[in-house]
Specification:
63% of the residues lie in helices and 0% in strands. By secondary structure, the chain is an all-alpha fold. It starts with 5 loop residues before the first helix and ends with a helix. The relative contact order is 0.18.
């Protein structure tokens, strides 16, 4: 059974490309993809940027 990725679903539903997420947090697209897919955790500073700049709900980032 595959885990649902609510963050990826939110980004898709709100037409926010991963390239924009990468730009906002200052990471490569590859590193951003690993974070979105739960292979690596977001840093607190990245969580703040995604919440305040892209309005991503905090519960999807932690």
């Amino acid at each position: 059974m595959e885990d649902s990725n609510e963050l990826l679903g939110y980004l898709t539903a709100n037409h926010i490309p991963q390239t924009k997420v990468a730009e906002v947090i200052g990471c490569s697209l590859s590193a951003t993809n690993r974070k979105i897919n739960h292979h690596v955790e977001f840093k607190q500073s990245e969580i703040r940027k995604l919440h305040y700049i892209l309005h991503v709900p905090l519960e999807l980032l932690i």
